[in-house]
């Protein structure tokens, strides 16, 4: 089960949450009061994004790769860039009531994160995330312009509803993916 999907920045400094979709019940998030449910949810997701951002920046420093190289590669080629893949453990009470795992892919200035149960199939989560990224880039252009996440949330929502229905990771072969792509394209064109 996926509890949340996040799109956030990877720029040096603090991360910014560009888009989020929550699939978890309110009881999954810690310290949620009736008055501040929305604010607390967003704060918890920003905390998760900050942990992923920190891991990404550490890896970049160790490998000596620059973000500018990735950005230049994204703009010069029509293919998806080489993503940095990571799994970040989210401790109990940090920010969920139970331990979770964040599966993330980042390149350039943008990172895509799935927050899953710690027992979730990580390979399946990675495959679904790669499919989502490919389709999001095709219809929204998030890698070349991350701010599009703020201006086209309805397109992102349609794509998530098809490829990650109600937070469930789907086993998909190429025929299922093609069928979901056709359905999504017909909805987006309306």
From TrEMBL:
The UniProt transmembrane annotation reads none
GO CC terms in record = AP-type membrane coat adaptor complex; cytosol; late endosome; lysosome
Any Gene Ontology biological process: double-strand break repair via homologous recombination
Q: Which InterPro entries match?
A: AP-5_subunit_s1
- Top-rank lineage group of the source organism: Eukaryota
Q: For this UniProt entry, which residues form the secretion signal?
A: none
Name under which the protein is recorded: AP-5 complex subunit sigma-1
Q: What is the lineage of its organism?
A: Eukaryota, Metazoa, Spiralia, Lophotrochozoa, Mollusca
């Amino acid at each position: 089960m996926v509890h949340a999907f996040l799109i956030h920045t990877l720029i040096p400094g603090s991360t910014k949450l560009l888009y989020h979709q929550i699939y978890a019940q309110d009881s999954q998030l810690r310290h949620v009061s009736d008055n501040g449910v929305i604010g607390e949810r967003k704060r918890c997701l920003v905390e998760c994004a900050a942990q992923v951002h920190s891991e990404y920046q550490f890896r970049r420093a160790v490998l000596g790769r620059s973000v500018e190289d990735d950005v230049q590669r994204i703009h010069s080629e029509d293919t998806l860039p080489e993503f940095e893949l990571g799994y970040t453990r989210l401790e109990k009470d940090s920010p969920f009531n139970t331990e979770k795992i964040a599966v993330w892919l980042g390149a350039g200035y943008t990172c895509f994160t799935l927050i899953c149960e710690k027992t979730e199939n990580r390979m399946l989560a990675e495959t679904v995330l790669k499919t989502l990224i490919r389709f999001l880039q095709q219809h929204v252009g998030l890698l070349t312009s991350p701010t599009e996440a703020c201006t086209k949330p309805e397109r992102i929502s349609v794509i998530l509803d098809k490829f990650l229905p109600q937070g469930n990771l789907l086993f998909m072969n190429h025929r299922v993916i093609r069928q979901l792509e056709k359905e999504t394209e017909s909805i987006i064109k309306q």
